[in-house]
Model the fold of this input.
Amino acid sequence: MDLHQKITELKKQKNAVILAHYYQVPEIQEVADYVGDSLGLSQKAAETDAEMIVFAGVHFMAETAKILNPDKKVLLPDLMAGCSLADSCPPDAFSTLVEAHPDHVVITYVNCSAEVKALSDIICTSSNAEKIVNSVPKDVPIIFAPDKNLGKYIQKKTGRKMLLWDGACIVHEAFSMDKLLKLYKEHPGSKIIAHPESESHILETATYIGSTAGMIDYVKKHPAEKFIVATEAGILHKMQQEVPQAVLIPAPAEEDNTCACSECAFMKMNTLQKLYDCLLHETPQIEVSEEIRKKAILPIERMLELSK
Ligand code: 13P
Ligand code: SF4
Done:
């Protein structure tokens, strides 16, 4: 049996579900029960009746699944799979900001630690951020953390002035404007689509801005076109599968690297072998203290409720 078959057998035996993000390597996406964006993955984690969740994504995603499922084993193939954006918001510093603004509602992007979630009022993802911000009465001030690029984009969309945390994702800040414009000239008539974690000058070039799932849906609606895709390159696998006739070109990164695009080193830490090993040995597991979990679940549940 190859690894794919072994994983399929093992997950049946153990009544496990494999949830994977679009940025995972293709072979992991192929073995997963569900591949989605951060909101879809949280929703699946909230509703699964499997006994065990194997999260093929990064730490904050698996941690969110654990917060929602304290009695289930939640496994992450590589515990070192972190997130630069989550790391840009240390809980102590964030707590100081929150305490200094007791009149503000705290909306936090899901890319953050459980401790930061525990300090928040509502969690959001890139697919529901606008809706979540609009759910707060207009006269109530908002702290938005940790992604300043998503925050700026939502400020513009909603007309709300928000106090922004100065965090960012290294993968989405790696796109080169000069190379993007050069590529666009080489492909006249192509459409640029971008994830809102990208910087505003990149977003200004885009015909569509949305979450990973939103970007895939947009391409599905315009199957015969050519797209320059400004997000982590792992998305191209599912996008091309869904829309085989579309021409997809990854947006170029500033640094010359092997893929000439932008890849998330954290997402790529998970491999099919590590996925198999973690399912077999039921480790590494995600743990969240009950004290933090009880506080962190409230803003996640508010998000899930507002996203129905
Ligand atoms: P979404 O899949 O929710 O768009 O998020 C992208 C991302 O950067 C996940 O880390
Ligand atoms: Fe974090 Fe960026 Fe990687 Fe997403 S792509 S996991 S935001 S570092």
Summary: The chain is about 45% helix and 15% strand. The CA atoms of residues 121 and 230 lie 30 Å apart. The mean pLDDT is 97.
